[in-house]
Amino acid sequence: MFQHKHPYEPFIQGNTTKLIVGTLPPPRFSTGDLLEKDVDFCYGSYYNSLWLFIDEIHQLGLRYDNSQEAIDQRQAFLIEHQIGVCDIVASAEREKIDASDLGMTNIVLRDLVGYLKQYPHIDTLLFTGGNSKNGPEYFFRRHLRDYNLKLELVNNEVPRIHKFQLQNRTIKTVSLTSGSGAANISISRLPLYKQLKAKNPEFNTFDFRVMQYSAFF
């Protein structure tokens, strides 16, 4: 059984207003066996990288390698835009060493609500995936029950938006389409994607994510 511990502490500043919330990075980030284009930082996997979409939106010219400069570029962007990262899973066990959310067992969650109380300027959570089993929204719903809180639906269109009340403030959650290849199938079934694809045959699932993410980054 592989003990999969999250390799990164939450990256949050005192003025952070948005928080990116995922589950766990691929196991190689915990073991240190990075690939050539991986960046040793949150969402550093080149092959399932939130940073590819952010880079396209802002034309940042990011490096994709194991260098300190690549890390510094990403941290500088987050700080400038008052965005933090706090994945909800602290650790899990796996029989098979892969990045599948469904493969996680004996899951230990971070106290995300505790971080929200500690950083009162955060008003938006950006989930890197929806409410499918062992996804970030799924775990957050479970976590909220420990505080007798629950999400209230605001918009049921993808990306789905919810809200909840905490310490006299309203916090919004946005369930973005996952950057994983498996999510391409669900994207291809969306009426909006079909409509845009029909207008422009070259439009693809990467373009769709860039369009979706640009409203929140």
Estimate the global geometry from the Cα principal axes. globular
Number of helices: 8
| Main sheet: strand order | 3-2-6-9-8-7
Evaluate the radius of gyration.
Answer: 17 Å
Strand content: 15-25%
The stretches of 5 or more residues where confidence is low (pLDDT under 50) are none
The run of helices and strands is EEHHHEEEHEHEEEHHH
* DSSP strand tally: 9
How would you classify the helix and strand content by structural class?
Answer: alpha/beta
- Sheet of most strands: 6 strands, mixed
N/C terminus separation: 37 Å
Give the helix level as a range of percent: 25-40%
Mean pLDDT: 93
Write a short abstract of this structure.
31% of the residues lie in helices and 20% in strands. It has 217 residues and is of the alpha/beta class. The model has no long low-confidence stretch (mean pLDDT 93).
Which structural traits does this protein have?
217 residues; alpha/beta; 6-stranded mixed β-sheet; 3-stranded antiparallel β-sheet; 8 helices
